[in-house]
UniProtKB/TrEMBL annotation:
InterPro entries: DUF155 (IPR003734), RMD1/Sad1-interacting (IPR051624). This is DUF155 domain-containing protein. Transmembrane segments: none annotated. Residues 44-211 form the DUF155 domain. It holds the Pfam family DUF155. PANTHER family: PROTEIN RETARDED ROOT GROWTH-LIKE, REQUIRED FOR MEIOTIC NUCLEAR DIVISION PROTEIN 1 HOMOLOG. Signal peptide: none annotated. It comes from Jejuia pallidilutea. It comes from the Bacteria.
Length: 259
């Protein structure tokens, strides 16, 4: 029995620098991923969005590998989200179970798909926690609006909040291709089936939709907050203009009275 374990180690990983600095055997690369063979039956998978996945490596080997990867990380995490899945090798069998995957052999492309989906599951866990916190914070402002009839957030803080939400949405869109299949699955039906079964087992699509729906709810609330704030600012300007007009009229009136 073998183990795939995926970690969120950083906010991002510089893949260009990683490729130049890491000495493992490179099997696959693109702008978002580096897939290495570190020894005869061990693999390491790096993702630009801060994920690293390992196959058939013990704790000491993983820690040693992370130390090599650390210099290429942006905002390296001391506490890391992680997830693991057992891989069982059984001749002529391909099956995805609740907590394990059965493969007919140690095939680098099959292993890569298991590592990819495990990594995306951890990434979804991270984004789920972030969006849940944002939704809770949004609901606090909504509740205050309901109870007090006004907002308890300044224009500057609201703009920062909107920027944070948009940044998270962009990261999810750029880094998680839950609904896309890797190129390797297009040519081999067996790999395509494995990929689809893994997505279903990790419940990736439903979890992604939940995160997307949360972001849309947050966006709708923030747009409403912005409209209220814009209206408030517009009303303030109108009152300033009215006051200036009144002052001007009074000034003319006093001037006429004196003459």
């Amino acid at each position: 029995m073998y183990t795939v374990v995926a970690y969120q180690v950083a906010s991002a990983i510089n893949l260009k620098a990683s490729k130049q600095g890491l000495q493992w055997q490179l099997l696959f690369q693109d702008s978002d991923e580096l897939y290495y063979k570190s020894s005869n039956e061990s693999f390491i998978y790096l993702f630009q969005y801060g994920m690293v996945s390992f196959f058939n490596m013990n704790h000491t080997e993983i820690e040693r590998a992370l130390e090599q990867i650390k210099p290429f990380c942006v905002n390296y995490f001391s506490e890391k989200l992680s997830e693991s899945v057992e891989v069982i090798i059984k001749t002529n069998t391909l099956r995805v179970q609740f907590d394990s995957v059965v493969l007919p052999k140690i095939d680098e492309e099959m292993i890569r798909l298991v590592m990819l989906n495990t990594s995306q599951s951890v990434a979804l866990q991270s984004f789920s926690e972030i969006t849940e916190e944002l939704l809770i914070e949004t609901n606090e402002h909504t509740l205050y609006l309901e109870e007090k009839g006004k907002l308890d957030i300044s224009g500057h803080k609201l703009k920062r909040f909107i920027g944070k939400v948009l940044n998270i949405k962009n990261k999810i869109t750029e880094n998680l291709y839950i609904f896309d299949a890797p190129d390797i699955t297009w040519e081999k039906e067996q790999l395509n089936k494995l990929n689809q079964d893994l997505k279903q087992s990790f419940d990736l699509k439903d979890r992604y939709r939940l995160i997307h729906d949360r972001i849309e709810i947050i966006k709708e609330n923030l747009e409403l907050f912005k409209d209220i704030m814009d209206h408030k600012e517009s009303s303030r300007l109108e009152w300033i203009i009215i006051i200036l007009i009144v002052i001007e009229v009074l000034d003319l009136f006093v001037e006429k009275m004196l003459t």
